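USER: Please consider what follows.
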Amino acid sequence: MTLGLCLYVLYTSSGLALLPIGLIKTAPSISNPTLRANTAQQLETNQERQRQLEGRCGGNPDLLSSKDRRELDTLSREERTLIRRQRLVEESQGDSRGWLMRVWFKIEAIFRPFKLLGGILLLLIAFVVWVSMLLTAIDKAKNSICKHRCGYILGHVNIFNPVNWTLVQSAKVFPVDYAIFTALVLLLFCSSVVGVTVVGIRFLWIRLFQIRKGHTSPQALLLATSMLMLMTLALNYSISMLVAPQYATFGPQTFCDRESWTPLGQPDCSNSKELIKPCSELADNPAAKRVCTPSVVSTFLNRITLNFPFFGVVFFWAQFFFLGEYLSFPALDS
């Protein structure tokens, strides 16, 4: 499980960095009429050379020499550039294709500014998610009651978390919070897929397999499927414990922090709105115990962390490393 959590953070960080950048990149100018033929020839030569290198190692780049591995990495990056250039050439020379393709290329050209705006928006959202995860990790390090002895469980959110606050406030208007939460989950999962595709299957810094269209080995597909299953499992932990802990645990639930006149009665805060407080694990008022109901997923994860605090400690400190590593991932797509 710890491996899955670490892999999730690694590839989600890379995907969150690379997915918006892929949308923000502008199209290069195309002025040479022979560019299409040259690009096709370079792409064919590139792919043929890659097939030769892969034939030497049987799909395992570890068997190649360091020089050949560097050449294979360079050819892979060059192939992505050539494929993108070829697509742009086809868009600019769409007259030789059918009318449907010409209409599609024109629509793509019209909506390219919106694609740029969408990339900027996704970049801002990724930054907000990164900040929220960092703030929650700092909150756990500073305000966790039992620290490493219970896996840095956080009983109450003490530091403002923008994603958590947005979800809690939007929960007051059904179903806005469901829409935001679904979009957040899809963003993290799609970013994970993009991270696996671009980074490839690696052990630390050693690339084992590459994910490429028409060139992915069966072993790479099997490993990628297993990693996506682990990422889906880790997605539940990350959102509940890091991205939006208050929303994932109690949601918008509140309680009246006032003494009750009867043991089983509910206190009245209709005239004292300042005493209405959000639910938390640290609330000592008996009314909170009766009203506040934690979610099933948060209860399940907290019990696992309490019984096996080693996993919580490993993931907690690995979180800081991967949050810092996130800033270097955009260079991988250059």
About this structure: The mean pLDDT is 77. Residues 146 and 152 are 7 Å apart (CA to CA). The first strand starts at residue 201 and ends at 203.
